[in-house]
Amino acid sequence: MVVRPYNDELKYLEKISDHCWRIKKGFQPNMNVEGCFYVNSRLERLMLEELKNSCRPGAVGGFLPGVKQIANVAALPGIVGRSIGLPDIHSGYGFAIGNMAAFDMDDPLSVVSPGGVGFDINCGVRLLRTNLYERDVQPVKEQLAQSLFDHIPVGVGSKGIIPMNARDLEEALEMGMDWSLREGYVWAEDKEHCEEYGRMLNADPAKVSMRAKKRGLPQLGTLGAGNHYAEIQVVDEIYDKWSASKMGIEEKGQVVVMIHSGSRGFGHQVATDALVQMEKAMKRDKIETNDRQLACARINSVEGQDYLKAMAAAANFAWVNRSSMTFLTRQAFAKMFNTTPDDLDMHVIYDVSHNIAKVENHIVDGKERKLLVHRKGSTRAFPPHHPLIPVDYQLTGQPVLVGGTMGTCSYVLTGTEQGMQETFGSTCHGAGRALSRAKSRRNIDYKEVLEKLDQIGIAIRVASPKLVMEEAPESYKDVTDVVDTCHAAGISKKCIKMRPIAVIKG
Amino acid sequence: MLKLKLEALGHPTPADVSLSNRKEFASTILWLEDQKIRLYTIEDREKLRNIDNPKMWEEGYLKYKADLNMPSLESQQEELAWILSHAVRLEFLDDPEQFASINSKQNSAQTNGKQTQQKIQSIFDGKINVQDKAFIDGVRLLASKLNVPHHPNHLLQLEAVARIVHERLSPAARGRQPIVGTPFPFDKGNDIVSSNDPALDLPMRILRLLQIQSLRQLQTHINETIVAVQNITANPKTDTKLGKVGR
Hints:
The complex is a heterodimer. By secondary structure, chain A is an alpha+beta fold. In chain A, 34% of the residues lie in helices and 24% in strands. Chain A folds into two domains: 6-107, no CATH class; 123-505, tRNA-splicing ligase RtcB, CATH 3.90.1860. Chain A has helices at residues 6-10, 41-55, 66-74, 134-137, 141-151, 166-175, 177-183, 188-192, 210-216, 241-246, 264-285, 302-337, 417-422, 437-443, 446-455, 479-489; strands at 13-17, 20-23, 35-38, 79-90, 97-104, 111-112, 124-133, 229-238, 254-261, 297-298, 348-353, 355-364, 367-376, 379-380, 399-402, 410-415, 426-427, 459-462, 492-505. In chain A, strands 7, 8, 9, 11, 15, 16, 18 and 19 form an eight-stranded mixed sheet that branches. A seven-stranded mixed sheet of chain A has the order 1-2-3-4-5-13-12, sandwiched between helices. In chain A, helix 9 runs antiparallel to helix 11. Chain A is globular, with a radius of gyration of 21 Å. The model of chain A has no long low-confidence stretch (mean pLDDT 93). Chain B is an all-alpha fold. Chain B has three domains: 1-97, no CATH class; 130-177, no CATH class; 193-232. Chain B has nine helices and no strands. Chain B has helices at 2-8, 22-37, 54-68, 76-94, 100-123, 133-145, 154-169, 171-175, 198-233. In chain B, helix 1 runs parallel beside helix 4 (76-94), helix 2 (22-37) packs parallel to helix 4 (76-94) and helix 6 packs across helix 7 (154-169). The longest helix of chain B is centred in the C-terminal third of the chain and has 36 residues, at 198-233. The mean pLDDT of chain B is 81. The A-B interface holds A 149-150, 153-163, 181-185, 188-189, 191-192, 222, 225, 240, 242-243, 245-246, 250, 327-328, 331, 383-385, 390-392, 394-397, 414, 416-417, 463-464, 493, 506 and B 182, 184-185, 188-192, 208, 212, 215-216, 219, 222-224, 226-227, 229-230, 233-240, 242-247. Chain A: It is an enzyme of class 6 (ligase). Chain A: Its cofactor is Mn(2+).
């Protein structure tokens, strides 16, 4: 890494519009393209402070600042367009979380990088609607939260209640949501409203290590720990009445359920295994990167292809996982209200992935090109009439589900044409960390956090309360800032805002 | 439409031609004569060149219209449309070979018509001659009763009639539950229709809606198939004994 005084670093950054900054070539060595990031004034301060801190003499250890990571990604072989930082960006392994980058599939030197997908492969958010209103749920909120907590096992080391054997897992890895459909855990309409129709066709379970499968098997149908959660939310604000009505959201106060989870230990193991393979491939193919964490392999190499197939299997695992929890949520609600999920109109509004690499066609410099799009902590946000979004959302644009922090609010956005042109159809994914986990543990007391939630009337069930301060709102950027920035920059459009009334957490 | 024709003729600023301004109109006419139509010799165009002198120009234009054999039209817009079409026709006749490739598409449209004919012919199993005058008259009458717009090929019109009967008048359609819920207003989507020409905007929206409708039908069929399969394969189980809440 180049170490320069902060003021010299600033010369490489240029504010090109109210909400967008340009990172010029030379900020980091060997940049093939420029970088950029989207911020508003508050997020801008956080970004630059982070850079400033890293410029202090003697600052070593920890992750590189987000801006530097964007620039390092811009130096990877085969990258096209720009290396893009979304407003919720924060430092991560190799790629910053909230960084998206696209690589040309037709360039033999182009790479795929597990760091650009993240360890929790196909971590994502699913939103279920109901025809209940806040007044129906408020009186039974505590029981409902408990019922969800009983159905959906949470926390580190939790085990699912859907019986599965090794053969079931192999099939699920290959079939994704089609497996859940075949076994009858979900509805036909759920598949329709899921990114990629809940199944990546290039998945190959044979490319996944035994270790990953062993870790994954008992964890299917569990929420996990960390920032994952299931929330009962009520619609707090509707910005775009017509798009909301397309999603079945008619009025304020309507109750929805948000599930945020990923591929658990399975995806983590797949990523870890791949990193080992890729380091070898880098040596063999003489691929140079600015950061050791940016381990990668050529897309067409054996390692690259193996990773993409294993990643697809992990993505399928995550969809089966979220589908299983959808089933369990429907059961919990049906039991509580003594009716059927059908009568509660518990349809999936949409299911987004925010840690994934996908092959997509985009227009670059006026020409259509096949790209491998890495989205890490970034959500796909395709515009109206895009062939890959469900027919029900052809007029509105793809719904983008943005989960907030525990106890704050969440948003539904829609994809825009401008986003398609500027950010390869990508937008933010959540609040984005402001404090590291360790720092939050030091600075915040968990009892205070729980009390605060209680005061604002949120029922909470949590498996490990002592870790809850890692997820306290104070540890995160303000999700409203993040969403407003995306809306103002035009890369997605605000549609609905929800606030939680009950939270289930690991 | 005018804009498209101007574009096709290579007008430098097709988007800026405004019809409200007579001077703008005059200069467009002059441009067309100078560059495309060339009815007069250069000297004879003198009067038309007097764009800044409305009286002279109008005089010249009146004669020009007569010399072009323009039928008497009512508005300035119609006149421009006529002259543009005339210019496009001249341009085409200059070098028809150049546009031969475009003709092939028309051919495919014609074969499409032929296919329709064969299809309908086969439905009637050769028992009815679909080119018979009585048959054609019948189709036209039926079409006018159902408000189907006129099309030169009566068989295409018959297809449209069949579609309306199938979707609106068949017993199955009549027995169908009316669709409930708030309708989604036509123009309230987030989609941008790229053209800023209202004459193109509306047809494009309609075509897109038709496309969405047929996609919806396809998706519904897929869902029905999945449900049919689920009836055989589905057996969801849970076992709460397996569950374990972590730390």
